Amino acid sequence: MVPMATLSEIRNPKSAFRNATWIGLFLSLFAMLLVRQTVAYFSPTLTFTAAIWKESLIWVSAIVLLILVRRGERLPFTSVGLGTSTWWKSILWGLVIAVASAIVGGVLAALTGYGHGPGSAAFEKLPLWLITLIVFRAGVVEELFYRGYAIERLQALGLNRYWAAAIPLVIFGLGHWTGGAANIVIALALGAILAGFYLWRRDLIANMIGHFAVDFVANVLPKLFS
Predict the structure, then answer these.
(1) pTM for this structure?
(2) Is the pLDDT of residue 118 over 60?
(3) Which of 31, 224, 25, 57 is nearest to 134 (CA)?
């Protein structure tokens, strides 16, 4: 059996694990943006087929990143915040994150009038089951990319915890430019809440639950009861 690496080996400039980490950081910070822009190039309007392609490619990127953690860096999944807490604590803290995010997001959405643009209209035309899967993917993959992996590895490469959280937060927020300035503001605010909870608890499952829950309430529940 090949021995597992340690985060200290990533700090070594000559370590092969460090090279794998740079690849992982590129995937975590930019894979979703590249996938979205590539799909948008061939299909400027978010159609059903375009959404399927986008979601599939994003999931493939997440799987590649997880393989890289285990095979390239030879680290356990706890190194990205998975399995660091008991399941019931993750659920409870996930609900706390969801409530905090819903309050802040709701206030900002009301103040900015977010949710009435052409991008939102195209999204709302998708089947409800697909919207639900997109919301689930957002909760799982975005937290893996921008919180669990990016924060942990930027710290391992020598950044302090605040810079390690701020860099992916800015990329995460600006990556929502297709929804306009209001979407960027909301993404930055909610991303800051999620990053803060991750720095505090280091429980990626709780982050995933909270992210999914607030998106589910905002995008799926209204359709279920309409």
Answers:
(1) 0.93
(2) no
(3) 57
